[in-house]
Amino acid sequence: MNAPHQPPYQGVPHTGQPYPAQPYPAPVPPKKSRLGLVLGIVAVVLVLCAGGGIALLLSVDTSDDTPTAAGTSAAATAKAQGGGYRQPSDPCSLADLKVLGPRVGAGKGEATEEKTRFTLTGCEYFLAAADGAQEVKAFANVDGDTAARYKESADVYPKITGFSQDKVTGCGAQGFFTKRLSSGDQRLEAILVCTDQNLYVEVRFNAGGKEAWDAAAMRANMVKLVNGMIANVPKA
């Protein structure tokens, strides 16, 4: 019996080209004093998920990071921040997208930043593949908020409607993978988060296609990608 006809994957416009919808950044943890805001966000998420879309909900930076005093060495700063890494100067030099497999397309990366409670800095790739547009976001942050970033992501991402979570070993000191398949498994949204000392790494893969995606294979490939990124982050 033939599977029901699925409409072609439609992405979010970017500089005149169609691209997949963007995954959520890690949102601000709920607080009692912001109950109304949290309920409003939940309502928006439910509406968007019902339509199969993902949107960027938060854009206000509420972090209270204090700039490092002038003259402090990079090594001393990294040590004070609780680990052995330094923030990479070029976030687009870290990831080798070829390890994601032959079905993943090619494209040039652009530096990107997302601001919620914690600022995420990384590289965004819009890829042209044989069976549709794809998007990859690869973030790497070195600071004193690694544990808090990880906890926030682990508390939020797997709870988005349709996502499932698996713990990951062999990816830094700790990690988790979460995914959502839709449109007869022809659309895949996957997120891998790993940490090592004071380094937080998050990679998102978002793509449609004409064939079903192998989520297990993509998970293994994303682990390879993140381990390669960790190896490329400069040490303190």
Which value, in Å, is the CA radius of gyration?
Answer: 18 Å
Strand adjacency order, main sheet: 3-4-5-9-8-7-6
Model regions low in confidence, pLDDT < 50 over at least 5 residues = 1-22, 24-81
Helix/strand order: EEHHEEEHEEEEH
Shape: globular
| Share of β-strand residues | 25-35%
**Class inferred from helices and paired strands:** alpha+beta
Count the beta strands: 9
Q: Mean pLDDT, as a whole number?
A: 76
Counting copies of identical and different chains, the oligomeric state is: single chain
> What's the N-to-C terminus distance?
59 Å
Helix content range of the residues, please? 10-25%
Largest sheet: 7 strands, antiparallel
SS field, number of helical segments? 4
Topology (elements, then pairings):
Elements: E1 12-14, E2 17-19, H1 35-50, H2 74-80, E3 109-115, E4 119-129, E5 132-142, H3 146-156, E6 164-168, E7 174-182, E8 187-196, E9 199-207, H4 215-232
Antiparallel strand pairs: 1-2, 3-4, 4-5, 5-9, 6-7, 7-8, 8-9
Using brief descriptors, characterize the structure shown:
single chain; 236 residues; alpha+beta; 7-stranded antiparallel beta sheet; two-stranded antiparallel ribbon; 4 helices; 9 strands; globular; disordered N terminus
Task: Please give a structural write-up.
This protein is an alpha+beta fold and 236 residues long. The chain is built from 4 helices and 9 strands, in the order E-E-H-H-E-E-E-H-E-E-E-E-H. The chain has a 7-stranded antiparallel sheet, with helices on both faces. The protein has a two-stranded antiparallel ribbon with strand order 1-2. The N and C termini lie far apart (59 Å).
